[in-house]
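Notebook entry, structure prediction.
Reason for the run: the old model in the group folder had no record of what sequence produced it. Starting over properly, with the input documented here first.
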Amino acid sequence: MASKRRVISLVLACLFLPVITTFLSGIFGAIVYSSWRSRSLDRGVQLYLRAIDDIDSSSRFNLPGASSLYNLQGQVGPPFYVTQLRVFDWISKLGLEKLASHLPFNEPVEGEPEPGIDSIARLDGLFKDVDGVSCAGVSNAKEFWVYVSLWSLPTVFPWDAAFDELVMFHDANPLPDGVELAYVDCFSEPFLCHIWEVQSPAMVHFQILDELTDDDYEMVAGQPLGANSEIVPTERLRSVQVHVIDLPLSEKSPQIMPNNTFPSPAATLRALTTQPKDDLLAQYEEYEYLNNQMSVFNEYYYEFSDTNTFLYYFYEVDNWLADNIIEPLGLEESFQFFHTLVFILVNNFIELTAAPLRALWAYVKDEFLAKPREGDALVATIERRNREQETGMFGDVFGGLFGDFLRGDNNN
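New structure, fully documented this time:
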C-alpha cells in the first residue's frame, strides 16, 4: 500500500511541472492570439476602406451611359487574359452566391452574431444556384483554378511567368468543359488576399459539388442569398468545395517530394491542372475558415516565439517535458485538451474585457482626437458613394439632352 502511494506521489510530482507549463502555454497563446487577431481585423477594415476609396476615385471618370471605369478595369485583359477576381465582383464572376446576411450592410440572421467585414471575402459559405440567370461576365463553370499572384508581372516573377505559360498551354490544349482559369492580384486586391489568408504564389481550387452538404443545408435553408436577398429553393443550390494549394509543391506539399519532382514552375502548374484532381486534392484538407486561420496564426506564433526571448526558452522546456514525461505516460490527448480549454477560456475572457476598452478608446479618438471610428468611416464612405451620381465628374459636362442620349433615354 505504501509503495502504491509512493508511485502515485512520484507520478503527481512528475506531472506537476507539465501541468503548470501547459497552463501557462495556453495563457501565453491566448494573449498573443488576441493581439494578432485584433490587428488582423483592423488591417482588414483598413484594406476594405482602401478598396472602396479606389472605386470612389475611379468613379469620378465615369461617363454617362458607359460602363464604369471599375468594370472596364476588371474585364479580361493583360497580363494573363483570363478573369481577374476583385473584392466587389469575385463572387459573381465565379457565378456563386453568399448568404445575404454575410454581405455588407444587410440584416444579420436573427439570433446569430452580426458577421464581421471579413465575411464578404471569406472562402466558406459559398453556394451555386444551378438555375440562376446567367449574366454577362458571370461564369457557369463547375470548377476553377485561381492563381494568386503578388504583382502580376510575368516578366519579373517566375511563378507569374509560369501562369502565363499555363494560360497559353491551355489555349492550345483546352481544359475540360466546365473548368476555367482565373487569377487574383494581391497588390491591387490586398483585402481579398488578406481575408483569404493566402500568400503568393498559390492556387485556389473551387469545385461545385453535385448536392448540398448537410451542414450547408442547415445554413442556407430558408435564408436569403445575394445582394437581392432572394430566398432560393434548396433544390437549386449546390455546395462549393475549396482547396488552397501553396506553391512550390516541393516545399509545401503534404507529401514530401524532392526538389526535382517538377523541373520548373510551369511544369508544376500544368501538373496541377492536367492530373486527375481527385488524386491531387485528396492530399489537401478542404478549406475551413477557423482551421486555416489557426494554421496561419501558428506559423506567426512559432516565428514570434522562435527568438532569443523568454517564450523561446519557455517552449524549449515545455517541449522537453512533452517528449520525456507526457508522451511516455500516454497523456498527450489529455494535455492537448487541457491546453485548448485554457486557450479558449482565456481568449474569451480577453475579448470580454477588451471589447469595452476598445470601444472607449474609439470614443476618445472620435471625440477628442478628431479620428473617426473605423466603422463610422466605413458607413460614411458607403453612404457618400450611394448619394453621388454614377456619372462622375463628367456628369455636368455631358448633362441634359446629350446625357440622356448617351444613357439611351432620348425618345425624340
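Summary: The chain has a mean pLDDT of 76.
The old model has been moved to the deprecated folder.
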